[in-house]
Amino acid sequence: MDSPASLGLYGRLLGARVRSDWQYRTSFITLLFSQALVTVLEFVSILLVLELVPNLGGWTPTEVAFLYALATVPFGMADLLMSSVERTANHVQAGTFDRLLLRPLPALFQISAIEFELRRAGKLLPSLGVGVWAVANVDVAWNAQRVGVLVMAVLCGAVIYSALWVASASVSFWAVGSREAANAVTYGGQAANQYPLHVYRNWVRAVLGWGIPLAFVSYVPSQWILDAENPLGMPSNLVVAIPVVTVAVLVAALGCWGLGIRHYQSTGS
Amino acid sequence: MGDAGVDGARVGAFLTLMVEVARRSFRRASHYRLATAAGVFVNTVFGYLRASVLVFVAASSGGMVRGLSGSDLATYAFMSQGLIMVVGVFGDTELSDRIRTGDVVVDLYRPVDLQMWWLATWIGKAAFQAAARGIPPVVLGAIAFDLTWPDHWWLWLVFVVSVVLASVVGFTVRFCSALATFWLLDSRGIDQMVTFTVGFFAGMLLPLTLFPQWLETVARALPFASMVQLPIDIYLGTASGSEIVWTLAQQAGWCVALLGLGRVMMASATRKVVVQGG
Predict the structure, then answer these.
(1) By CA distance, what is A31's nearest residue in B?
(2) What b-and-e string marks burial along A140-154, b requiring 16 or more CB atoms within 10 Å of the CB?
(3) What is the interface pTM, i.e. ipTM, of the complex?
């Protein structure tokens, strides 16, 4: 598959999806708006918590807002571009997954394009707003190094979340009925990252933070960039591990997907 | 006025039918075993996350926030996770899908009231969800967290009544939003808006007790509080004595008002019904 041609194809498939969604205009706009609303309400509930406890284990409200943005902006990107792999379960169940395998393009590429939904962009805008506000208001002397880590964290975070979507979608090749369980890792992971990792119990932190390794999406880079309280005593150079962890998670996820496809047996009738 | 005996027989037949519909719906819901297990898993994971944060909040404020202890708040987190499916926080797109595709015409042909038919379906499913998705997250939560249990045995009974009312309120909210499909033709937008509004104002993201005073007052004046916050108020004993009666009365009031609104919408929708599809 040569990349310029496939990029063009990706664009055309996306365009077709957007045009078809645009047919139900009112619905499309309310969906976009409701996606934005959920992010706003989520953030409001965090603000309400911060009003009760202004000091979350040594982190100021602005620092928590920064962490929140670093948890939700990459998630919004992954949600927009890759969460459509969730629909694999529907294709496996309906038997239409066969069709994807017959075409001369990788199934992952096809499914992310065919099931693309522009309305998911609604989630990104409020998170970006919080992010811009937090960057402007945190007590940090911005330099090239910090900006570099921030950009890297956003990109790596988006890849890690995307990988989680792919890995959890792979489960539907084995147990199609259990697809909801994947939400614990994807949506649950995003929810967990919205608070500093040190508020969680030891073992929750061990599993979600370091096992899945969600900590590398927002907690580790935020702590380093902001030079915030470090009650967990993380080594200060842990940020350099972010790209390594990202690659490892990506490889593991693609491995799961590959195994899943190999295991896939078409449904009858 | 008809003969009283005939009316009695009619009511009897109607109730028998409703119970039958609810039973089938219960049975249908019980078939998806793997999906139920997966759902319990997700609800419990979210319970752990929410309980962790709330317990941390209580601990950072000296053990109590707004009269609630850490274990009260952890209980709130797991109870509300357990209520998600029972009261239908995320709703159910079955009716709105049928309106969108035009299948609702079959429902309208039936010699049974549309609203009562779907209410019976909802209750049957909710009864299954209460057992299969309601209890496990609380039990699994109790393994890792210190939870609060009702002080008196009769509170359990009142709590069950309150949950039934909560489920009916949940039904009325979704019935009204599904009927909006008759006018909007596609229901996904409105379904999602309702989901997020319910999530916030019912007390799914945060207990309403932790809202600032003015916002709590607003939230408690809305019907959504009846779905999650009010039953847990009874369970935790935050509402006690005459407050319990008031809480149940509020829930019952919303049931009546919103069932009524649903009927008005239904009457006007069926007058203008445009069936989509061939």
Answers:
(1) B189
(2) beeeeebeebbebbb
(3) 0.89
